[in-house]
Please model this.
Amino acid sequence: MDPLFDAMWPSVRLTLELAALTTLLLLIVGTPLAWWLVRARVWWKEPVAAIVSLPLVLPPTVLGFYLLIALGPDALGGLIGPAFGLRTLAFTFEGLVIGSVIYSLPFVVQPLRNAFAAVGDRPLEVAATLRASPWRAFWSVAVPLARPGFLSACVLGFAHTVGEFGVVLMIGGNIPGETKVLSIALYDFVETAQWREAHILAAGLVVFAFCVILAMALIEKRTLKAGA
Amino acid sequence: MTQATGAPGTIEAAFSGRIGAFALDAAFSVPARGVTALFGPSGCGKTTVLRCMAGLTRLDGRCLVDGDVWQDARQFRPAHRRPVGYVFQEASLFPHLSVRRNLLYGAPLVPPPRSIAFDEVVRLLGLAHLLDRGPHHLSGGERQRVAVGRALLSQPRLLLMDEPLSALDRATKDEILPFLERLHGALDLPVLYVSHDMAEVERLADRLVLLERGRVLACGPLAALQSNPDLPLATTRDAAVSLDGIVESYDGADGLIALAVRGARFLVPAPPGEIGARRRLSIAAGDVSLALEMPRASTILNVVDARILSVTALRSHEMTLVLGLGADGAGDRLLARVTRRSFVQLDLRVGLAVHAQVKGVALAAAGSPPAGVSGA
Model:
């Protein structure tokens, strides 16, 4: 096999797996959370929203530090880890997934929250007067009408997970095939003066980022047109 | 079965509470048939009452429909468990569904016996050519017709309509009104219709619940409330009375129908109608003048016997008179607006027999209002 490919492929595959799994989990966690943030009428809604948004402003290393402790054998990791046959969740792929979900949560919840808010009360009221239970109204009206929000959420959640560095460094370390994702690999290449590999990776990530931003812009444009 | 404390055949609603700065304390009871208009100026609480009945807004109170308890002190049935059809001011179609799927959204999978059929709704509302379109490609009037059809196909036991025409322009309103009239004629479904437009109410409603600043001023048959001088309707600039009559004959040469109401007979310009069909007249107070002797030569077609039942001073120079049609004054009521000077000069007074000259008579409704309507 091409040694260049061999050097990079495990990291690429790991990153894609991590981002895909994280995005899936984020949708499962983020959808009800975003719905609740829009529909709930309780005072502690905004504090919860603020906690969800914390990763937007916190240095990733701060988040990573607390996650490291939380995922360690003396905390959550020691409780959940054995279920996966692990002593701890720190420095494992499972740990990375948990960290990524928390780190990327605001990037999924925010677009979903905006999309659900844009749906408004009226379509749900109409559904209710047509005998649709809240559950049916959610799936048959709210979700289809919030589809652009789901697209944005997926793209952002995926892209942001691909691009994380600080959190991974703190809780994942640099284990090939287990926690060595693209951004860490790039750091590694630079440290070991493998400039060619570094160039390819860096340029690849630039192209990826460009595509993400372009996709977002196109989704937004389509949404505006559909709403007009 | 829900425990039935409400009388079957009636709709009973009573709601009180505050929404922001607005206080509502409204209670009324109407028969569960025909069209009842909730009428009043903007901001009087009409829409809030309707939303409470649908379970979309929750205020303290009770709501009993045809023997079923929808809300009382102990229970509150959520909106999706109430068999209502609700037509909002804006059509509010689901933008992601075709017209057909909008129509069928609330339709039960197994239609109950005596249900409103899809084909019938499509025919009544003229929707056949729109079924496979998306809501974005419909005109305002078409959208509202789909919204009405969608509400009907959910097989409601009560249809709630919240100013369904007010967001539409005059021409579109005139396009939809005949559809609504046809519906009310064809379907045996009680309707609560919110409106602030008397012309709409005259065309559609049998009964009126008159609201003002969150309270019910009066509730009863349309004509009775229109001709009650103690209510604001009789004293407005364009006060008028609706009379339900039966077509007696048709004069094709002059394009007139003879319409019999209680205590009088009116000649009305109208398209040919079946003998025996019901038609509704609207006669404005300002179009009625009084004479003590039968005018011998006049261009006015309709001069009818009546008796003065009451007199109310309107402004400094005008009086509003309630007339009872017929020589004995026992027939339908009519309003007449006369100047104070004429009133004094003719020495008009309660109980006096007069000849009412009616300058303008117009049909209020082209279609026939449902049976069991006219001023019993």
In short: Chain A touches chain B at residues 122-123, 125-134, 137, 140-141, 144-145, 147, 226 (CB under 8 Å).
